[in-house]
Amino acid sequence: MEKTMYESLTSIKNQYLELEKKLNTPEVYNDIKKYTKLSKEKADLEDIYLTFKKYQDVEDLYLLSKDIIEHEKDAELIELARHDIDNQQDELINLEEKLKELLLPVDENDKRDVIVEIRGAAGGDEANIFSGDLFKMYQKYAEEVDFKIKIIDYTYGSAGGFSQIVFSIKGNKVFSKMKFERGVHRVQRVPATETQGRVHTSTATVTVLPEVDDDVNIIIKPEDIEVDVFRSSGAGGQSVNTTDSAVRITHKPSGIVVTSQDERSQIQNKETALKVLKSRLFELEMQKREEEESGLRKLAGTGDRSEKIRTYNYPQDRVTDHRIGFSTSLKTVMEGSLDKIINALIADEKAKKIKEVGL
């Protein structure tokens, strides 16, 4: 292992042990706020600490085996040490690779819940039907991985599906997985309305926002927003509520408009709409920062077919993620088995980060 990496790991190990010591002092464990803060810091370092501790234990055994081979006269002991040293070298290599991954920069939003928006884009009615199919796919995926979905706002498509649907997903490190869904999704299939059996191409855009809480300093001034109330509507614009409980908030400085209509009361819908607005403003800040740092802007896209991140090819029963050239069965993906694609994207992201930071 390189000296600089070893020194960094030693520093992290010392930090962990220092935090462990502090957590056992009366002034900390009697102070809930301080105890919670330090416990979180310790938990964030735990995987690195335990893996490095194991690395050092194996390293000690490796050095002992090496010493026996170099200085021992007993042939049997030397043979045993030679056998052990090969295994120890392999284990050290594996542990070093694991430590490289653990040392990678962490996306500060990975632990957050998310707000997702799906919109029908190119393809008219078929794009809206595809938006509905994507929503069902995410519902099934959420069931598989124990995430919870809650609809915030929706506009039905005239032929089925949604021209737009907004929903939240809550669970363990949701953003770390769902962030890979941002972009243009393309479908190739024969629409139900097609009489000559021709394959059509349509698209839907998926936006994934990290849901922000009080830990993020996003200030929304009352004078900067305009609040409208209306009745929730179902398919074809039909009213599904007898009171004006749905809420639309317009943020004047940014021009962002958010709507919530799936809660029971106007107060709840307003709270949900404000939460969505806060997440959108946070996303704008992140995009601005990314532009300044690297010139890159991560958007969902306009919906143009050429911007696709993934293609769902029904005639060939195949889903292809174009970012990594990964293909798998369409049927299993639409039934919610997204982990194969997401895990491949995570592995690709880690490989790129390792290359970038030069570990």
Automatic annotation (TrEMBL):
It is found in: Cytoplasm. GO terms for cellular component: cytoplasm. The keyword Protein biosynthesis applies. InterPro entries: PCRF, Pep_chain_release_fac_I, Pep_chain_release_fac_I_sf, Prokaryotic/Mito_RF, RF-1. GO terms for molecular function: translation release factor activity, codon specific. Keywords: Coiled coil, Cytoplasm, Methylation, Protein biosynthesis. The keyword Coiled coil applies. Residues 78-105, 267-294 form a coiled coil. The modification N5-methylglutamine is found at Q238. Methylated by PrmC. Methylation increases the termination efficiency of RF1. Pfam families: PCRF (PF03462), RF-1 (PF00472). Residues 231-247 form the Prokaryotic-type class I peptide chain release factors domain. Its main location: cytoplasm. HAMAP family: Rel_fac_1. Belongs to the prokaryotic/mitochondrial release factor family. PANTHER family: LD18447P. Peptide chain release factor 1 directs the termination of translation in response to the peptide chain termination codons UAG and UAA. This is Peptide chain release factor 1. It comes from Metamycoplasma auris 15026. The gene is prfA.
